[in-house]
Amino acid sequence: MSDELILEVVTPEKMVFSGKIEEVVIPGTEGEFGVLRGHEPFLTSVDIGELHFSSADGSKKSYYAINNGYAEVTAGKVTVLIETAERSDAIDKDRAEKAKEKAEAALSQLAKEHDDYEKMRLALIRAITRISVAEKSSLN
Questions:
Q1: Which of 49, 50, 134, 138 could disulfide-pair with 93, CB 3.0 to 4.6 Å?
Q2: Are 43 and 105 contained in the same domain?
Q3: Which residues lie below 8 Å from residue 13, measured CB to CB, with a gap of 6+?
Q4: 83 near 16, Cβ under 8 Å?
Q5: Does 64 have pLDDT greater than 60?
Q6: How many domains are contained in the chain?
Q7: Distance between CA atoms of 130 and 132, rounded to whole angstroms?
Q8: Residues 29 and 81 both lie in one domain
Q9: Average pLDDT along the chain
C-alpha cells in the first residue's frame, strides 16, 4: 500500500493541480466517488460537477467546478483528465449567474426534441455547478 496519494488534474490547456492530498471526491458519470491512499485501481468517466480534495495534512479543502472527462485511480495516484476545471476562488459568480439565467430562458423556449435542448441543459448544469463551487471559496 502506498503511503501517499498524489492528485493530478489536467485539462487540454494545462496542469490545473498536482500535489499530495489526503482524499479526493470526484463526480463520476455513475455517481460521486471518493479515493483514499491504497485504493483499488480503476478507470472511469467523469461528469460535470464538483471535485474537492483535502490537503495532505487535512488542514485545507480545495474545490473545483469540472467538466466531462476521465479519471484513472491507482493505489498512490489519481489522474483526472477533463475538458475544463475552475478553482472556487477563480470563478466569476456574476458571470455564472448570467449563464444560468440565459440557459434557463433558452430551455423554457425549446422543446425537448430540439437540437439545442441538450446543449442548453448541459450549460445550465455547468452554470449551477460553478455557482455552487464559487460559494465554497469562502470556506477555505
A1: 134
A2: no
A3: none
A4: no
A5: yes
A6: 2
A7: 5
A8: yes
A9: 93
Last residue of a domain, one of 88, 106, 124: 88
Q: Which three cell numbers stand for residue 96?
A: 455564472
Q: Among 88, 105, 130, where does a domain finish?
A: 88
Which residues constitute the domain of residue 135?
Answer: 92-139
User: What confidence score (pLDDT) does residue 58 get?
Assistant: 77
Q: DSSP code of 26?
A: E
pTM of the full structure: 0.91
* Rounded Cα distance, 115 and 93, in Å: 28
In the chain, pLDDT over 90 holds for what percent of residues?
81
- The number of beta carbons lying within 10 Å of the beta carbon of residue 10 is 16
Q: How far apart are CA 84 and CA 51, in angstroms?
A: 12
Clarify whether residues 58 and 106 are in a common domain. no
| pLDDT recorded at residue 138 | 60
* Spatial distance between the Cα atoms of 112 and 70, rounded to a whole number of angstroms: 28
22 and 83 belong to one structural domain: yes
Query: By the 8 A CB rule, do 79 and 8 touch?
Result: yes
- Identify the CATH number of the domain in which residue 13 sits: 2.60.15.10
Q: What does the alpha-carbon distance between residue 44 and residue 127 come to, in Å, rounded to a whole number?
A: 24
